[in-house]
Amino acid sequence: MTYAADRLHEEVAYVAYHFHWSWESILDLEHPDRLRYVAEIARINTRISQGR
């Protein structure tokens, strides 16, 4: 099964935007680790937007 290229680009762009990491550094992460960072960033953004 191949991971969708569009989804991969979204994940990389999201992490790169928030953490300012390089494309290569983000792609070096294992898929579950990259998804964990995406989820954590989303939680942080949600807390900030809710004023917590």
From TrEMBL:
Q: What is this protein called?
A: Transcriptional antiterminator
Show the InterPro entries listed in the entry. DUF6760 (IPR046648)
| Natural source organism | Saccharothrix tamanrassetensis
Which Pfam families has this protein been placed in?
DUF6760
**Where do the DUF6760 domain residues begin and end?**
3-51
